[in-house]
Amino acid sequence: MPLARVSIFPLSGALLLPGMDLPLHIFEPRYRALIHDAMARDRRIGMIQPREGGPVPSLFDMGCLGHVSHIEAMEDGRFNIILTGLARFRFVRELPVATQFRQIEADIEQAPQEDEVLHAVERAALEQESRRFADALGYVVDWTAVSRLDDTSLVNGIAQIAPFDPAAKQTLLEADTLSERSERIIQLMQIVGRGDRDGGATMQ
User: Fold this and answer.
1) What pLDDT score was predicted for residue 203?
2) Which tens digit of pLDDT belongs to each residue from 8-48?
3) How far apart, in Å, are the Cα atoms of 69 and each of 22, 59, 80, 132?
4) pLDDT of amino acid 55
5) What's the whole-number mean pLDDT along residues 152-181?
6) C-alpha distances in angstroms, 55 versus 117, 122, 191?
7) Which 8-state DSSP code applies to residue 42?
8) pLDDT, tens digit, for every residue of 91-127?
9) 44-48/4-10 β-pairing
């Protein structure tokens, strides 16, 4: 598959996964310009995490291409958008551009042919560890609603909202299967839970 030009929004701690929604508030001039450009073309934006701070930080190797599925324009030029994940991509190289926002060349993955599912024991382990984790951090969760989610929505939803640090979130994005991502979530929850009980720092 040929490489694609992707306009990117580098944002630490923001994880977008295929099929999931990510709400974003856009206020910086360079990212307002990004939204204007995306809406004039194909409504697509690449979310990718920077490796460090600074005005032009280096980037992680993988991100996720998203489609602006909802947009609210404010009078002062800001935007509220919802970005819906389409497919993961691998960062190949940065392009020399005159735009305020950064653009890269990326290798975009093909969408899977069918939805992945967890084995019953994997699903049960994830739900059990999620309950322990939520209780430890004092979260109030509608577990009845959680039980109705399909496996992909459950795993990817937890990956996006759980208070893990950016590097941990990146490992979740890079997991190649739903089962692998679920197992990594359980491991991260156990690490955070132990740190919380021992008075150590949590990943957030």
Assistant:
1) 36
2) 999 999 999 999 999 999 999 999 999 999 999 999 999 99
3) 10, 25, 11, 34
4) 80
5) 95
6) 40, 42, 32
7) T
8) 999 999 999 999 999 999 987 667 789 999 999 999 9
9) parallel
- Which residue in this structure is represented by tokens 């992945």? 116
Q: What is the DSSP annotation of 94-147?
A: E---SSSS-EEEEEEPPPPSS-----HHHHHHHHHHHHHHHHHHT----HHHHH
> Taking the model in full, what pTM does it have?
0.90
Residue 154, both tokens: 């459950």
Can you say how many angstroms the Cα of residue 86 is from the centroid of all Cα atoms in its chain?
A: 11
Distances (CA, A) of 61 to 2, 51, 88, 104: 18, 10, 11, 11
Sign of the alpha-carbon torsion through 83, 85, 88, 89: negative
Output the six-digit token pair for 161. 């909202």
